[in-house]
Amino acid sequence: MDHFKPELFSFLADLKQNNTREWFTKNKEQYRAEVQAPLLEFISAYSGPLGKISRHFVADPRPAGGSMFRIYRDVRFSRDKSPYKTHAAAQFRHREGKDVHAPGFYLHLGPDEVFMGAGLWRPAGPTLGAVRNAIVENPDAWREVTDGLTFGGESLKRGPKGFDPDHPMINDLKRKDFVISSSSTQKAACRPGFLDEVARAHRAAAPLVRFLTEAIGLEF
User: Fold this and answer.
1) Is 1 inside any structural domain?
2) What is the Cα–Cα distance from 120 to 213, expressed in whole angstroms?
3) pLDDT at position 198
4) Which one of 6, 84, 195, 205 is least enclosed by Cβ atoms within 10 Å?
5) Boundaries of domain holding 81
6) In whole angstroms, what separates CA 145 from the centre of its chain?
7) Which residues of the chain have pLDDT under 50?
8) Which among 158, 99, 101, 151 is positioned nearest to 128, based on CA atoms?
């Protein structure tokens, strides 16, 4: 089944060029039909494949409060006051997670890039400390799950307080985020097999997510 169509990306490209409340209000029904509805259908269909990766992560197809991110940007602390995001996205987070900072799997659909992600993004201090402690206490396990991975996100310029600045994994201990991604394309996203492609990417990332999830005391 092909959940996404080229019209989804065309709408997001148009929104990027017309990022105003007036334009979006005029085209809101098009957004609902071409972006929101297909993504919610995908999320619902992804519940089965996600459950095979871990029963503790959730694909919630509710239009508000579920796995899909809102299209509205939080501009309170941003110089960019554009009111809308120009991509569609979903996070399949741990059932104990309350927000985007929980361990999870991710899907990003944009006019400029399509990718699948996984990991732990910008966790709070205690959570970040627990992950760092787990890396120090289980270095072999950490090396095994991260072998060959390229991390995104931000890092501290100096080692975190309380950790040996000469630790052999100091670069990992400096991380503020523990996230990885796998690129795809618009063309692939519009093919019937895209759900399977997303599942393959998330299965490949599952060992990392397991380590992070168990490091903070949750079940994988």
Assistant:
1) no
2) 9
3) 98
4) 6
5) 6-215
6) 18
7) none
8) 101
